[in-house]
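Internal ticket - ligand job 254, 6-phosphogluconic acid:
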Amino acid sequence: MAHIWKYPDGDAAVEALADCLTSDIRRTLSRQACYRWALAGGSTPGRLYRRLARPDAAGLIDWGRMRLFWGDERCVPPGDPRSNYRMARESFLDAVPIPVGNIFPIDGTLDPERSAEAYAAVLGEKPLDCVLLGMGDDGHTASLFPDTPRLREECRTVIASRSPVPPVHRVSLSLRSINAARCVLFLVLGNHKDVAVARVMDQLGRKDAFLPAAMVDPGRGALHWFLDQDAAALLNRESQAVSIENTIRRRTEP
Ligand code: 6PG
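stdout (C-alpha cells):
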C-alpha cells in the first residue's frame, strides 16, 4: 500500500522525508550490520542530500555502516555536471564521514550494457533496504521511461536504457530491483509534476499501470510518496480525470 504524504512546500516535504529516512536507518541498524541505500538522481534529491549533510541530521547516521548505491546514472564521466554521482558527492557525500569504500557509483564511462552488467555484480542479489526515487513529468522514474522495451525486465537487476532527453544513454536499476527493496521513497515537488502525479496515483496498484512510477510497488515493502502541495494539486479533486484534462488544456491553449 502506498502512503501519500502532502506538505505545504518543498522544505516541509524534505524535512519529513529526512526524518523518515534517518529513523529507518537507525531502526534498521539496530538489527543488522549495514544499510544499503540507492540514491536518486536529477535535481530534486539534492534538497534532501543537503539536509542530511547538516550536522543535526548527519550526526544521527552511522556512516561507517552505510552502503550507498545509485538508482540510475547518466552515461557521462563522474565529473560531468549531468552526473548523478557528482550531484550527490557535491550535495552531501563530501560533507559526511562516509568511507569512500562504502560508495558504489555506476560507471558512466563504460558502454551502457557493460556498465549495467558490472553494476549488477556490485549490487548483488541482496535486496536494498531503501530506494530513493524522483519522477519526471512524463511519469518516468530512475531511468525507466514509458513505452520502452526494458521497462518490464523480469530477469536483470540492472539495465541499460535510453532517455528521450539527453543524456540519452543511461544505466538504471530495473523494476525488479526497485520492487524488491524493503522501502521505496519518492520525493516529487513542483506544479510541473502535478499532471504526472495525478496520472500515476490513478494507476497505482493497478495491473494495467503503464507509467513507470506507477509500476513501482515493493509489495510487502513500504512505499511512501513525499509531495509538496504543488505536485499534489490535482489529487483528491472530485474528478482527477477532469482536473488533469482541464489543466492540460489550460496549459496548451495558445
Ligand atoms: C535522473 C533521475 C530521474 C529524475 C527525474 C526527476 O537521472 O534524471 O533518476 O528519474 O528523478 O527525471 O528529475 P528532477 O528531480 O530533476 O525533476
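Auto-summary: The radius of gyration is 18 Å. The pocket of 6-phosphogluconic acid is lined by residues 40-44, 72, 74, 84, 134-136, 140-143 (CB under 6 Å).
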